[in-house]
Sequence to fold (606 residues):
Amino acid sequence: MATSSHKFDPNFTDNVINAIGPKASDRTRQVMGSLIRHIHDFAREVELTTEEWMMGVQFVNSIGQISTPIRNEGQRISDVIGLESLVDEMAHHIMMDSDEAPTSSSILGPFWSPNAPFRENGDSIVISPAPGGQVALMHGKVLDVLTKKPIAGAVVDIWQASSNGKYDFQDPENQEDNNLRGKFRTNEKGEYHFYCLHPTAYSLPTDGPAGELFTLLDRHPMRPAHIHLMRLKISHKDFKPVTNQIFPKGDKYLSTDTVFAVKDDLVVEFTPLKGNEKAELELEYNIRLAPKGTAPGKEGAKL
Amino acid sequence: MATSSHKFDPNFTDNVINAIGPKASDRTRQVMGSLIRHIHDFAREVELTTEEWMMGVQFVNSIGQISTPIRNEGQRISDVIGLESLVDEMAHHIMMDSDEAPTSSSILGPFWSPNAPFRENGDSIVISPAPGGQVALMHGKVLDVLTKKPIAGAVVDIWQASSNGKYDFQDPENQEDNNLRGKFRTNEKGEYHFYCLHPTAYSLPTDGPAGELFTLLDRHPMRPAHIHLMRLKISHKDFKPVTNQIFPKGDKYLSTDTVFAVKDDLVVEFTPLKGNEKAELELEYNIRLAPKGTAPGKEGAKL
Fold:
Protein backbone atom coordinates (compact mmCIF):
# COMPACT_ATOMS: atom_id res chain seq x y z
CA MET A 1 0.00 0.00 0.00
CA ALA A 2 1.48 3.30 -1.07
CA THR A 3 1.87 6.09 1.42
CA SER A 4 1.88 9.79 0.77
CA SER A 5 1.70 12.86 2.91
CA HIS A 6 -1.47 14.21 1.26
CA LYS A 7 -0.37 17.75 1.06
CA PHE A 8 -3.32 19.76 -0.07
CA ASP A 9 -3.58 19.36 -3.84
CA PRO A 10 -3.08 22.78 -5.47
CA ASN A 11 -4.69 21.51 -8.69
CA PHE A 12 -7.87 20.27 -7.08
CA THR A 13 -10.10 23.17 -8.14
CA ASP A 14 -8.71 23.25 -11.66
CA ASN A 15 -9.35 19.53 -11.93
CA VAL A 16 -13.00 20.00 -10.97
CA ILE A 17 -13.45 22.88 -13.42
CA ASN A 18 -11.61 21.04 -16.19
CA ALA A 19 -14.00 18.14 -15.82
CA ILE A 20 -16.58 20.31 -17.61
CA GLY A 21 -16.97 18.57 -20.95
CA PRO A 22 -16.52 19.83 -24.49
CA LYS A 23 -20.24 20.04 -25.21
CA ALA A 24 -20.90 22.53 -22.40
CA SER A 25 -21.47 26.03 -23.78
CA ASP A 26 -18.85 28.72 -23.34
CA ARG A 27 -21.19 30.59 -21.05
CA THR A 28 -21.79 27.51 -18.90
CA ARG A 29 -18.05 27.00 -18.62
CA GLN A 30 -17.61 30.63 -17.63
CA VAL A 31 -20.45 30.76 -15.10
CA MET A 32 -19.98 27.34 -13.54
CA GLY A 33 -16.21 27.61 -13.58
CA SER A 34 -16.40 30.88 -11.67
CA LEU A 35 -19.01 29.53 -9.28
CA ILE A 36 -16.99 26.39 -8.49
CA ARG A 37 -13.81 28.41 -8.01
CA HIS A 38 -15.50 30.87 -5.65
CA ILE A 39 -17.14 28.12 -3.61
CA HIS A 40 -13.81 26.31 -3.26
CA ASP A 41 -11.99 29.54 -2.44
CA PHE A 42 -14.60 30.28 0.20
CA ALA A 43 -14.20 26.83 1.75
CA ARG A 44 -10.40 27.13 1.83
CA GLU A 45 -10.44 30.72 3.06
CA VAL A 46 -12.50 29.89 6.14
CA GLU A 47 -11.24 26.30 6.45
CA LEU A 48 -14.82 25.14 6.39
CA THR A 49 -15.28 22.25 8.81
CA THR A 50 -17.16 19.07 8.02
CA GLU A 51 -19.85 20.05 10.52
CA GLU A 52 -20.30 23.50 8.97
CA TRP A 53 -20.41 21.98 5.51
CA MET A 54 -23.10 19.53 6.59
CA MET A 55 -25.09 22.39 8.17
CA GLY A 56 -24.91 24.08 4.78
CA VAL A 57 -26.06 20.94 2.98
CA GLN A 58 -29.04 20.57 5.31
CA PHE A 59 -29.80 24.27 4.94
CA VAL A 60 -29.85 23.98 1.15
CA ASN A 61 -32.12 20.93 1.38
CA SER A 62 -34.47 22.83 3.68
CA ILE A 63 -34.90 25.61 1.13
CA GLY A 64 -36.64 23.43 -1.42
CA GLN A 65 -38.51 21.45 1.19
CA ILE A 66 -40.51 24.50 2.35
CA SER A 67 -40.95 25.95 -1.13
CA THR A 68 -44.29 25.63 -2.90
CA PRO A 69 -45.74 27.07 -6.09
CA ILE A 70 -46.56 30.20 -4.07
CA ARG A 71 -43.54 30.21 -1.76
CA ASN A 72 -40.15 30.60 -3.38
CA GLU A 73 -37.75 30.24 -0.47
CA GLY A 74 -34.75 29.99 -2.80
CA GLN A 75 -35.51 33.45 -4.09
CA ARG A 76 -36.00 34.70 -0.55
CA ILE A 77 -32.64 33.37 0.66
CA SER A 78 -31.08 34.95 -2.40
CA ASP A 79 -32.73 38.22 -1.40
CA VAL A 80 -31.50 37.99 2.19
CA ILE A 81 -27.88 37.73 1.05
CA GLY A 82 -28.35 40.63 -1.35
CA LEU A 83 -27.94 38.56 -4.50
CA GLU A 84 -31.20 39.47 -6.18
CA SER A 85 -30.55 43.18 -5.69
CA LEU A 86 -27.03 42.77 -7.05
CA VAL A 87 -28.17 40.86 -10.13
CA ASP A 88 -30.94 43.34 -10.66
CA GLU A 89 -28.50 46.23 -10.43
CA MET A 90 -26.29 44.67 -13.07
CA ALA A 91 -29.21 43.80 -15.33
CA HIS A 92 -30.67 47.24 -15.28
CA HIS A 93 -27.62 49.38 -15.03
CA ILE A 94 -27.87 51.28 -18.24
CA MET A 95 -24.86 53.21 -19.34
CA MET A 96 -26.13 56.32 -20.99
CA ASP A 97 -24.46 59.42 -22.23
CA SER A 98 -27.18 61.39 -20.55
CA ASP A 99 -26.79 62.22 -16.87
CA GLU A 100 -30.37 61.21 -16.43
CA ALA A 101 -30.97 57.52 -15.82
CA PRO A 102 -34.25 55.74 -16.38
CA THR A 103 -36.29 54.93 -13.29
CA SER A 104 -34.01 52.61 -11.44
CA SER A 105 -34.82 49.02 -11.17
CA SER A 106 -35.38 47.03 -8.06
CA ILE A 107 -36.06 43.47 -7.21
CA LEU A 108 -39.16 41.72 -8.47
CA GLY A 109 -39.47 39.56 -5.37
CA PRO A 110 -41.56 36.48 -4.94
CA PHE A 111 -44.95 38.21 -4.80
CA TRP A 112 -45.47 39.40 -8.31
CA SER A 113 -48.31 37.64 -10.13
CA PRO A 114 -48.62 37.17 -13.86
CA ASN A 115 -52.39 37.15 -13.44
CA ALA A 116 -53.08 40.67 -12.19
CA PRO A 117 -56.09 42.06 -14.09
CA PHE A 118 -56.12 45.18 -16.23
CA ARG A 119 -58.07 47.93 -14.54
CA GLU A 120 -59.24 51.36 -15.70
CA ASN A 121 -57.50 54.58 -14.70
CA GLY A 122 -59.32 55.87 -11.65
CA ASP A 123 -60.13 52.40 -10.33
CA SER A 124 -59.01 51.20 -6.91
CA ILE A 125 -56.90 48.13 -6.35
CA VAL A 126 -58.22 47.92 -2.78
CA ILE A 127 -60.78 45.15 -3.32
CA SER A 128 -60.84 43.60 0.17
CA PRO A 129 -61.14 45.58 3.42
CA ALA A 130 -57.82 46.71 4.87
CA PRO A 131 -58.32 47.61 8.54
CA GLY A 132 -56.18 50.60 9.43
CA GLY A 133 -55.11 51.11 5.84
CA GLN A 134 -54.91 54.62 4.43
CA VAL A 135 -56.09 54.99 0.86
CA ALA A 136 -53.88 57.02 -1.46
CA LEU A 137 -54.35 58.40 -4.94
CA MET A 138 -51.30 57.51 -6.95
CA HIS A 139 -50.78 59.26 -10.25
CA GLY A 140 -48.08 60.31 -12.62
CA LYS A 141 -46.70 60.15 -16.12
CA VAL A 142 -44.57 57.66 -17.97
CA LEU A 143 -41.85 59.52 -19.88
CA ASP A 144 -39.17 58.72 -22.43
CA VAL A 145 -35.90 59.27 -20.59
CA LEU A 146 -34.20 60.60 -23.72
CA THR A 147 -36.84 62.86 -25.24
CA LYS A 148 -38.75 63.58 -22.01
CA LYS A 149 -41.95 63.03 -24.00
CA PRO A 150 -44.89 61.15 -22.48
CA ILE A 151 -45.39 57.55 -23.53
CA ALA A 152 -48.98 56.58 -24.33
CA GLY A 153 -50.09 52.96 -23.87
CA ALA A 154 -47.40 52.02 -21.37
CA VAL A 155 -48.56 49.45 -18.82
CA VAL A 156 -48.07 50.05 -15.10
CA ASP A 157 -48.41 46.82 -13.11
CA ILE A 158 -48.73 47.40 -9.40
CA TRP A 159 -48.86 45.06 -6.42
CA GLN A 160 -48.59 45.64 -2.74
CA ALA A 161 -49.17 44.00 0.63
CA SER A 162 -52.24 44.93 2.62
CA SER A 163 -52.29 46.80 5.93
CA ASN A 164 -51.57 43.52 7.74
CA GLY A 165 -48.31 43.16 5.81
CA LYS A 166 -49.55 40.25 3.71
CA TYR A 167 -50.13 39.76 0.01
CA ASP A 168 -53.29 38.14 -1.35
CA PHE A 169 -51.34 34.89 -1.88
CA GLN A 170 -50.49 34.67 1.79
CA ASP A 171 -53.80 35.78 3.19
CA PRO A 172 -56.70 34.02 1.45
CA GLU A 173 -58.93 34.35 4.56
CA ASN A 174 -58.92 38.14 4.32
CA GLN A 175 -58.06 38.97 0.75
CA GLU A 176 -59.65 38.11 -2.56
CA ASP A 177 -57.41 37.00 -5.40
CA ASN A 178 -55.78 40.01 -7.03
CA ASN A 179 -56.58 42.28 -4.13
CA LEU A 180 -54.04 45.11 -4.29
CA ARG A 181 -52.91 44.14 -7.75
CA GLY A 182 -53.71 45.72 -11.07
CA LYS A 183 -52.40 46.80 -14.45
CA PHE A 184 -53.10 50.28 -15.79
CA ARG A 185 -52.50 51.69 -19.27
CA THR A 186 -51.30 55.27 -19.69
CA ASN A 187 -53.56 57.57 -21.66
CA GLU A 188 -52.56 59.64 -24.69
CA LYS A 189 -50.80 62.11 -22.37
CA GLY A 190 -48.79 59.28 -20.78
CA GLU A 191 -50.80 59.60 -17.54
CA TYR A 192 -52.03 56.95 -15.15
CA HIS A 193 -53.94 57.20 -11.87
CA PHE A 194 -55.50 54.76 -9.43
CA TYR A 195 -56.25 54.25 -5.73
CA CYS A 196 -54.08 52.05 -3.56
CA LEU A 197 -52.94 51.86 0.07
CA HIS A 198 -50.17 53.69 1.80
CA PRO A 199 -47.83 50.72 2.23
CA THR A 200 -47.03 48.94 5.46
CA ALA A 201 -43.70 47.57 6.67
CA TYR A 202 -43.63 43.83 7.13
CA SER A 203 -41.50 40.91 8.10
CA LEU A 204 -40.38 38.27 5.67
CA PRO A 205 -41.71 34.84 6.69
CA THR A 206 -39.42 33.53 9.43
CA ASP A 207 -40.83 30.02 9.75
CA GLY A 208 -38.29 28.57 7.33
CA PRO A 209 -34.67 28.79 6.25
CA ALA A 210 -34.78 32.59 5.92
CA GLY A 211 -35.78 32.75 9.59
CA GLU A 212 -32.86 30.52 10.53
CA LEU A 213 -30.55 32.75 8.56
CA PHE A 214 -31.82 35.90 10.27
CA THR A 215 -31.19 34.28 13.66
CA LEU A 216 -27.73 33.08 12.64
CA LEU A 217 -26.80 36.51 11.30
CA ASP A 218 -28.47 38.46 14.12
CA ARG A 219 -30.49 40.44 11.58
CA HIS A 220 -34.08 41.63 11.61
CA PRO A 221 -36.48 40.24 9.00
CA MET A 222 -38.13 43.57 8.12
CA ARG A 223 -38.53 45.17 4.80
CA PRO A 224 -38.48 48.95 5.38
CA ALA A 225 -41.67 50.04 7.07
CA HIS A 226 -44.16 50.32 4.27
CA ILE A 227 -41.71 48.85 1.85
CA HIS A 228 -43.16 46.92 -1.02
CA LEU A 229 -45.83 49.49 -0.73
CA MET A 230 -45.93 49.04 -4.36
CA ARG A 231 -43.74 47.85 -7.06
CA LEU A 232 -44.16 48.77 -10.62
CA LYS A 233 -43.82 46.42 -13.48
CA ILE A 234 -43.89 48.39 -16.61
CA SER A 235 -44.07 47.10 -20.12
CA HIS A 236 -44.14 48.78 -23.47
CA LYS A 237 -42.98 47.27 -26.70
CA ASP A 238 -40.49 49.99 -27.59
CA PHE A 239 -39.07 50.51 -24.11
CA LYS A 240 -37.12 48.39 -21.71
CA PRO A 241 -39.26 46.97 -18.95
CA VAL A 242 -38.38 48.19 -15.47
CA THR A 243 -39.34 46.66 -12.17
CA ASN A 244 -38.99 48.66 -9.04
CA GLN A 245 -40.20 49.32 -5.58
CA ILE A 246 -40.93 52.67 -4.04
CA PHE A 247 -40.43 53.44 -0.40
CA PRO A 248 -42.21 56.10 1.64
CA LYS A 249 -39.81 58.61 3.10
CA GLY A 250 -39.14 58.38 6.82
CA ASP A 251 -39.52 54.65 7.24
CA LYS A 252 -37.32 53.37 10.06
CA TYR A 253 -36.12 50.37 8.06
CA LEU A 254 -35.06 52.34 4.98
CA SER A 255 -31.38 51.99 5.79
CA THR A 256 -31.60 48.37 6.91
CA ASP A 257 -33.92 46.79 4.37
CA THR A 258 -33.38 43.08 4.88
CA VAL A 259 -33.23 42.47 1.14
CA PHE A 260 -31.05 45.51 0.33
CA ALA A 261 -33.40 46.93 -2.29
CA VAL A 262 -33.61 50.59 -1.28
CA LYS A 263 -32.11 53.16 -3.64
CA ASP A 264 -32.25 56.88 -3.05
CA ASP A 265 -34.37 57.73 -6.05
CA LEU A 266 -36.97 55.15 -5.06
CA VAL A 267 -37.83 56.97 -1.85
CA VAL A 268 -41.05 58.92 -2.33
CA GLU A 269 -43.22 61.25 -0.31
CA PHE A 270 -46.94 60.80 0.27
CA THR A 271 -48.77 64.06 0.92
CA PRO A 272 -52.17 64.74 2.49
CA LEU A 273 -54.98 64.96 -0.05
CA LYS A 274 -57.97 67.20 0.60
CA GLY A 275 -61.32 67.34 -1.16
CA ASN A 276 -61.33 63.74 -2.37
CA GLU A 277 -63.58 61.47 -0.35
CA LYS A 278 -61.95 58.36 -1.80
CA ALA A 279 -58.46 59.00 -0.45
CA GLU A 280 -56.63 60.81 2.30
CA LEU A 281 -53.18 60.74 0.73
CA GLU A 282 -51.66 61.48 -2.61
CA LEU A 283 -48.52 60.33 -4.36
CA GLU A 284 -47.24 61.71 -7.62
CA TYR A 285 -44.79 59.35 -9.23
CA ASN A 286 -43.38 59.79 -12.71
CA ILE A 287 -41.60 56.94 -14.40
CA ARG A 288 -38.77 57.33 -16.89
CA LEU A 289 -38.19 54.59 -19.44
CA ALA A 290 -35.23 54.01 -21.73
CA PRO A 291 -35.89 53.15 -25.38
CA LYS A 292 -34.73 49.71 -26.42
CA GLY A 293 -31.26 49.75 -27.92
CA THR A 294 -29.88 52.40 -25.58
CA ALA A 295 -28.05 49.96 -23.34
CA PRO A 296 -24.99 47.85 -23.93
CA GLY A 297 -25.84 44.26 -24.75
CA LYS A 298 -26.08 42.36 -21.51
CA GLU A 299 -28.29 39.53 -22.54
CA GLY A 300 -25.77 36.80 -21.77
CA ALA A 301 -26.01 33.40 -23.36
CA LYS A 302 -28.46 31.05 -21.76
CA LEU A 303 -26.83 28.52 -19.51
CA MET B 1 -38.38 62.80 -7.64
CA ALA B 2 -34.62 62.62 -7.32
CA THR B 3 -32.58 61.33 -10.19
CA SER B 4 -29.25 59.64 -10.04
CA SER B 5 -27.11 57.73 -12.46
CA HIS B 6 -27.01 54.54 -10.39
CA LYS B 7 -23.43 53.77 -10.95
CA PHE B 8 -22.78 50.38 -9.47
CA ASP B 9 -22.44 50.82 -5.73
CA PRO B 10 -18.92 49.78 -4.67
CA ASN B 11 -20.05 49.45 -1.05
CA PHE B 12 -22.92 47.10 -1.76
CA THR B 13 -21.22 43.89 -0.63
CA ASP B 14 -19.74 45.50 2.47
CA ASN B 15 -23.18 46.80 3.35
CA VAL B 16 -24.65 43.31 3.16
CA ILE B 17 -21.84 41.82 5.25
CA ASN B 18 -21.97 44.65 7.77
CA ALA B 19 -25.66 43.97 8.31
CA ILE B 20 -24.58 40.92 10.32
CA GLY B 21 -25.52 41.86 13.86
CA PRO B 22 -23.43 42.09 17.03
CA LYS B 23 -24.80 38.86 18.50
CA ALA B 24 -23.58 36.72 15.62
CA SER B 25 -20.54 34.68 16.60
CA ASP B 26 -17.12 35.58 15.25
CA ARG B 27 -17.07 32.34 13.31
CA THR B 28 -20.48 33.06 11.76
CA ARG B 29 -19.27 36.49 10.75
CA GLN B 30 -16.16 34.98 9.21
CA VAL B 31 -17.89 32.14 7.38
CA MET B 32 -20.97 34.01 6.20
CA GLY B 33 -19.00 37.15 5.38
CA SER B 34 -16.68 35.14 3.16
CA LEU B 35 -19.57 33.24 1.58
CA ILE B 36 -21.52 36.42 0.78
CA ARG B 37 -18.42 38.11 -0.64
CA HIS B 38 -17.59 35.15 -2.86
CA ILE B 39 -21.16 34.82 -4.13
CA HIS B 40 -21.28 38.53 -4.95
CA ASP B 41 -17.84 38.42 -6.58
CA PHE B 42 -18.97 35.46 -8.65
CA ALA B 43 -22.11 37.30 -9.78
CA ARG B 44 -20.11 40.40 -10.73
CA GLU B 45 -17.31 38.46 -12.38
CA VAL B 46 -19.64 36.69 -14.81
CA GLU B 47 -22.22 39.51 -14.90
CA LEU B 48 -24.84 36.99 -13.92
CA THR B 49 -28.07 37.69 -15.79
CA THR B 50 -31.51 37.75 -14.21
CA GLU B 51 -32.45 34.62 -16.16
CA GLU B 52 -29.37 32.76 -15.02
CA TRP B 53 -29.95 33.84 -11.45
CA MET B 54 -33.53 32.58 -11.59
CA MET B 55 -32.32 29.27 -13.05
CA GLY B 56 -30.04 29.04 -10.03
CA VAL B 57 -32.88 29.81 -7.63
CA GLN B 58 -35.06 27.13 -9.18
CA PHE B 59 -32.16 24.71 -9.15
CA VAL B 60 -31.61 25.29 -5.43
CA ASN B 61 -35.33 24.79 -4.77
CA SER B 62 -35.28 21.54 -6.73
CA ILE B 63 -32.52 20.11 -4.53
CA GLY B 64 -34.64 20.04 -1.40
CA GLN B 65 -37.78 19.05 -3.26
CA ILE B 66 -36.32 15.69 -4.33
CA SER B 67 -34.52 15.05 -1.06
CA THR B 68 -35.95 12.57 1.45
CA PRO B 69 -34.67 11.03 4.66
CA ILE B 70 -32.78 8.52 2.49
CA ARG B 71 -31.88 10.80 -0.41
CA ASN B 72 -29.63 13.74 0.35
CA GLU B 73 -29.49 15.60 -2.93
CA GLY B 74 -27.81 18.60 -1.31
CA GLN B 75 -24.90 16.43 -0.33
CA ARG B 76 -24.82 14.91 -3.82
CA ILE B 77 -24.67 18.30 -5.54
CA SER B 78 -21.96 19.30 -3.13
CA ASP B 79 -20.09 16.13 -4.14
CA VAL B 80 -20.51 16.83 -7.84
CA ILE B 81 -18.82 20.22 -7.52
CA GLY B 82 -16.01 18.71 -5.46
CA LEU B 83 -16.94 20.49 -2.24
CA GLU B 84 -17.28 17.44 -0.02
CA SER B 85 -13.89 16.12 -1.11
CA LEU B 86 -12.34 19.53 -0.52
CA VAL B 87 -13.84 19.89 2.96
CA ASP B 88 -12.84 16.35 3.77
CA GLU B 89 -9.29 17.01 2.63
CA MET B 90 -9.06 20.03 4.91
CA ALA B 91 -10.66 18.24 7.85
CA HIS B 92 -8.37 15.26 7.71
CA HIS B 93 -5.18 16.78 6.54
CA ILE B 94 -2.96 16.02 9.46
CA MET B 95 0.33 17.79 9.62
CA MET B 96 2.76 15.37 11.10
CA ASP B 97 6.49 15.42 11.51
CA SER B 98 6.58 11.88 10.28
CA ASP B 99 6.66 11.32 6.54
CA GLU B 100 4.04 8.71 7.01
CA ALA B 101 0.48 9.94 7.04
CA PRO B 102 -2.45 8.09 8.54
CA THR B 103 -4.75 6.34 6.09
CA SER B 104 -6.10 9.19 4.09
CA SER B 105 -9.63 10.23 4.45
CA SER B 106 -12.28 10.35 1.82
CA ILE B 107 -15.85 11.40 1.61
CA LEU B 108 -18.50 9.78 3.73
CA GLY B 109 -21.17 10.14 1.08
CA PRO B 110 -24.89 9.78 1.51
CA PHE B 111 -24.97 6.00 1.91
CA TRP B 112 -23.42 5.43 5.27
CA SER B 113 -25.82 4.07 7.86
CA PRO B 114 -25.55 4.52 11.60
CA ASN B 115 -27.39 1.21 12.01
CA ALA B 116 -24.95 -1.27 10.51
CA PRO B 117 -24.72 -4.31 12.81
CA PHE B 118 -21.60 -5.60 14.49
CA ARG B 119 -20.49 -8.85 12.91
CA GLU B 120 -17.83 -11.40 13.85
CA ASN B 121 -14.48 -11.61 12.12
CA GLY B 122 -14.87 -14.22 9.39
CA ASP B 123 -18.53 -13.36 8.73
CA SER B 124 -19.77 -12.25 5.34
CA ILE B 125 -21.56 -8.97 4.73
CA VAL B 126 -23.13 -10.48 1.59
CA ILE B 127 -26.57 -11.24 3.02
CA SER B 128 -28.67 -10.99 -0.13
CA PRO B 129 -27.81 -12.66 -3.47
CA ALA B 130 -25.63 -10.51 -5.75
CA PRO B 131 -25.86 -11.88 -9.30
CA GLY B 132 -22.51 -11.63 -11.01
CA GLY B 133 -20.81 -10.47 -7.83
CA GLN B 134 -17.39 -11.85 -6.96
CA VAL B 135 -16.86 -12.59 -3.29
CA ALA B 136 -13.59 -11.37 -1.79
CA LEU B 137 -11.87 -12.04 1.50
CA MET B 138 -10.78 -8.70 2.90
CA HIS B 139 -8.33 -8.72 5.76
CA GLY B 140 -5.66 -6.62 7.33
CA LYS B 141 -4.41 -4.91 10.43
CA VAL B 142 -5.17 -1.61 12.08
CA LEU B 143 -1.92 0.05 13.09
CA ASP B 144 -0.82 3.08 15.07
CA VAL B 145 0.77 5.38 12.53
CA LEU B 146 3.37 6.59 15.01
CA THR B 147 4.43 3.39 16.76
CA LYS B 148 3.46 0.99 13.93
CA LYS B 149 1.95 -1.23 16.64
CA PRO B 150 -1.35 -3.05 16.06
CA ILE B 151 -4.45 -1.55 17.65
CA ALA B 152 -6.76 -4.05 19.31
CA GLY B 153 -10.48 -3.29 19.58
CA ALA B 154 -10.60 -0.82 16.71
CA VAL B 155 -13.90 -0.86 14.83
CA VAL B 156 -13.95 -1.21 11.05
CA ASP B 157 -17.31 -0.15 9.60
CA ILE B 158 -17.76 -1.19 6.01
CA TRP B 159 -20.47 -0.54 3.44
CA GLN B 160 -20.64 -1.06 -0.26
CA ALA B 161 -23.05 -1.18 -3.17
CA SER B 162 -24.10 -4.54 -4.56
CA SER B 163 -23.22 -5.94 -7.98
CA ASN B 164 -26.10 -3.94 -9.49
CA GLY B 165 -24.52 -0.69 -8.31
CA LYS B 166 -27.14 -0.08 -5.61
CA TYR B 167 -27.03 0.15 -1.84
CA ASP B 168 -29.59 -1.59 0.36
CA PHE B 169 -31.39 1.75 0.88
CA GLN B 170 -31.98 2.11 -2.83
CA ASP B 171 -32.86 -1.48 -3.61
CA PRO B 172 -35.30 -2.89 -1.05
CA GLU B 173 -36.72 -5.38 -3.61
CA ASN B 174 -33.41 -7.20 -3.88
CA GLN B 175 -31.52 -6.38 -0.70
CA GLU B 176 -32.27 -6.91 2.96
CA ASP B 177 -31.58 -4.08 5.36
CA ASN B 178 -27.89 -3.94 6.18
CA ASN B 179 -26.92 -6.11 3.26
CA LEU B 180 -23.27 -5.32 2.50
CA ARG B 181 -22.84 -3.41 5.74
CA GLY B 182 -21.12 -4.44 8.91
CA LYS B 183 -18.87 -3.43 11.75
CA PHE B 184 -15.91 -5.58 12.76
CA ARG B 185 -13.66 -5.32 15.81
CA THR B 186 -9.95 -6.00 15.50
CA ASN B 187 -8.59 -8.86 17.62
CA GLU B 188 -5.71 -8.63 20.05
CA LYS B 189 -3.27 -8.62 17.11
CA GLY B 190 -5.11 -5.69 15.48
CA GLU B 191 -6.46 -7.98 12.77
CA TYR B 192 -9.83 -8.05 11.06
CA HIS B 193 -11.21 -10.21 8.25
CA PHE B 194 -14.55 -10.68 6.54
CA TYR B 195 -16.13 -11.53 3.22
CA CYS B 196 -17.49 -8.85 0.90
CA LEU B 197 -17.92 -8.24 -2.83
CA HIS B 198 -15.43 -6.97 -5.33
CA PRO B 199 -16.99 -3.57 -5.88
CA THR B 200 -18.85 -2.40 -8.95
CA ALA B 201 -18.78 0.98 -10.69
CA TYR B 202 -22.06 2.82 -10.67
CA SER B 203 -23.84 5.98 -11.71
CA LEU B 204 -25.09 8.58 -9.28
CA PRO B 205 -28.86 8.99 -9.55
CA THR B 206 -29.53 11.23 -12.55
CA ASP B 207 -33.28 11.71 -12.12
CA GLY B 208 -32.87 14.94 -10.16
CA PRO B 209 -30.77 18.09 -9.93
CA ALA B 210 -27.48 16.17 -10.06
CA GLY B 211 -28.58 14.75 -13.41
CA GLU B 212 -29.38 18.23 -14.68
CA LEU B 213 -25.97 19.39 -13.56
CA PHE B 214 -24.21 16.52 -15.34
CA THR B 215 -26.04 17.41 -18.54
CA LEU B 216 -25.28 21.10 -18.17
CA LEU B 217 -21.60 20.42 -17.51
CA ASP B 218 -21.31 17.64 -20.11
CA ARG B 219 -19.98 15.26 -17.48
CA HIS B 220 -20.59 11.58 -16.85
CA PRO B 221 -22.31 10.52 -13.60
CA MET B 222 -20.01 7.59 -12.83
CA ARG B 223 -18.09 6.89 -9.70
CA PRO B 224 -14.93 5.01 -10.76
CA ALA B 225 -15.81 1.51 -11.82
CA HIS B 226 -16.08 -0.38 -8.56
CA ILE B 227 -15.71 2.78 -6.55
CA HIS B 228 -17.42 2.81 -3.23
CA LEU B 229 -16.47 -0.77 -3.26
CA MET B 230 -16.16 -0.24 0.33
CA ARG B 231 -15.61 2.58 2.66
CA LEU B 232 -14.23 2.22 6.07
CA LYS B 233 -15.47 4.01 9.06
CA ILE B 234 -13.11 3.38 11.86
CA SER B 235 -13.55 4.28 15.44
CA HIS B 236 -11.40 3.83 18.47
CA LYS B 237 -11.48 5.99 21.54
CA ASP B 238 -7.80 6.91 21.50
CA PHE B 239 -7.46 7.43 17.76
CA LYS B 240 -8.93 9.85 15.27
CA PRO B 241 -11.74 8.35 13.22
CA VAL B 242 -11.03 8.09 9.51
CA THR B 243 -13.49 7.61 6.71
CA ASN B 244 -12.29 6.55 3.34
CA GLN B 245 -13.03 4.73 0.17
CA ILE B 246 -10.79 2.25 -1.58
CA PHE B 247 -10.69 1.83 -5.31
CA PRO B 248 -9.66 -1.28 -7.23
CA LYS B 249 -6.71 -0.63 -9.50
CA GLY B 250 -7.42 -0.43 -13.21
CA ASP B 251 -10.90 1.05 -13.06
CA LYS B 252 -11.60 3.18 -16.09
CA TYR B 253 -13.19 5.98 -14.06
CA LEU B 254 -10.35 6.30 -11.55
CA SER B 255 -9.14 9.55 -13.09
CA THR B 256 -12.61 11.01 -13.68
CA ASP B 257 -14.50 10.11 -10.51
CA THR B 258 -17.55 12.33 -10.67
CA VAL B 259 -17.21 13.27 -7.00
CA PHE B 260 -13.42 13.74 -7.09
CA ALA B 261 -12.69 11.37 -4.21
CA VAL B 262 -9.85 9.24 -5.60
CA LYS B 263 -6.44 9.57 -3.98
CA ASP B 264 -3.42 7.54 -4.99
CA ASP B 265 -3.00 5.67 -1.75
CA LEU B 266 -6.64 4.58 -1.79
CA VAL B 267 -6.16 2.52 -4.93
CA VAL B 268 -5.83 -1.16 -4.01
CA GLU B 269 -5.30 -4.44 -5.78
CA PHE B 270 -7.50 -7.51 -5.46
CA THR B 271 -5.68 -10.77 -6.10
CA PRO B 272 -7.00 -14.24 -6.95
CA LEU B 273 -7.56 -16.45 -3.92
CA LYS B 274 -7.15 -20.20 -4.17
CA GLY B 275 -8.18 -22.93 -1.78
CA ASN B 276 -11.02 -21.01 -0.13
CA GLU B 277 -14.47 -22.08 -1.29
CA LYS B 278 -16.07 -18.98 0.14
CA ALA B 279 -14.21 -16.44 -2.02
CA GLU B 280 -12.39 -16.12 -5.32
CA LEU B 281 -10.53 -12.91 -4.54
CA GLU B 282 -8.46 -11.53 -1.72
CA LEU B 283 -7.64 -8.03 -0.56
CA GLU B 284 -5.15 -7.20 2.13
CA TYR B 285 -5.69 -3.73 3.46
CA ASN B 286 -3.93 -2.30 6.46
CA ILE B 287 -5.22 0.84 8.08
CA ARG B 288 -3.04 3.39 9.84
CA LEU B 289 -4.58 5.57 12.53
CA ALA B 290 -3.22 8.70 14.14
CA PRO B 291 -3.46 9.03 17.92
CA LYS B 292 -5.66 11.86 19.12
CA GLY B 293 -3.73 15.02 19.76
CA THR B 294 -1.35 14.63 16.84
CA ALA B 295 -3.10 17.09 14.56
CA PRO B 296 -3.44 20.84 14.68
CA GLY B 297 -6.78 21.90 16.11
CA LYS B 298 -9.23 22.37 13.30
CA GLU B 299 -12.48 22.03 15.14
CA GLY B 300 -13.80 25.44 14.19
CA ALA B 301 -16.51 27.12 16.18
CA LYS B 302 -20.00 25.97 15.45
CA LEU B 303 -21.89 28.32 13.20
